[in-house]
Structure prediction request, 395 residues.
Amino acid sequence: MEPTGNVLYSGGILFVFLNTSGFTNLLYTAPHRRRLIFKRAFIRIFMVQHGADRVAINNKQQCMTIWASSELFVPYCSSDTWSGTRSRPSSDTKFTFMGATIVSQVVRDLLPLGLINASTLLLAGSSAGGTGVIINMDHVKALLHDTFGLRQIEIRGVSDSGWFLDRAPYTVDSHSLAPLDAVRKGLVLWQGRVSSRCQQNFPDEPWRCYFGYRSYPTLTAPLFVFQWLFDEAQMTADNVGAPVTKQQWDYIHKMGDSLRHSFHNVTALFAPSCISHTVLTKKDWQGVKINEVSLPQALRRKANRRREQRSVWSIKEGEETCQQRLVERCSWPQCNHSCPKLHNPFTGEEMDFIELLKSFGLDMMSVANALGIDIHTLNNMDHEELLNLLTQQAN
Prediction:
């Protein structure tokens, strides 16, 4: 871990970011990744918590007080989705996996550095780090509230692109483990630690608790979920590949429907209908919107709502009430105006929306009829106009 200051401000928010870089990440790469990834992610969350509209990421002078007071970046080098407790190599591997142990020890180490005076511990992470947030939130809460008696500290979580599904893959690769088999074996190899409440629901299959929709109902700390409805990591895990055939698109479309259904009981959610993976560490993270609400606005509203629940707080005149759940209504991949651009996997060129629809294997005449327009109009319609029309159909 890398603390950047000695004392937290009394009553402040401590931000802990769990990094990710995939299961193949090596220890020596961590220092090279941490600077840019952390700087982006932390400043973004800080902007949300403190109501700032913009922070110059490269302005160290402006951000020095922030960096020196209330943040911690934890590099991902354990390759265990932040769940491992294996402190000694087993007979068949030379590795240790101590992700969960690291998270707990980080919290312990922060106590004498000022965590004891903080009002909130915000645990956030992207991809495997996002899954790690879900897995570790209640353990961190129990550690602070029960072990140390610090019940005045609120624990919150932000999971970015860490909500995965345990579904059958599109194809089975004979040269690698299926995702479910990998998680089953990983739990044993890592000596994985999952939520005890979740494990009670799956006593014979505790590995199910690595999947957000299985763990979420058992969480006792509030969690904000960001998830692309067509997550690239989920597609990779499902071995569906870059979508270029109708069969692939059919499978991916069902994946989006399955993800949407898995959110039925999530109270704080931002889920755009896009093909992408992670958002907090990307430079254009403020651009994605649902119903004209950006992710920073959604996070800020969630933070305000939590403050409202703890104290007397009223909405300013003219301000809209908080929307806690923002899920794309349109079910088409890439039908959100603010989606990251999609590129042809063979040429690398950016694809327009008409090309995307054709790659679904759709009969464009049927699409035109469904939209109430002729085929010539459809083929000549610009991207924005077509997206508006599709969104209106969805609403």
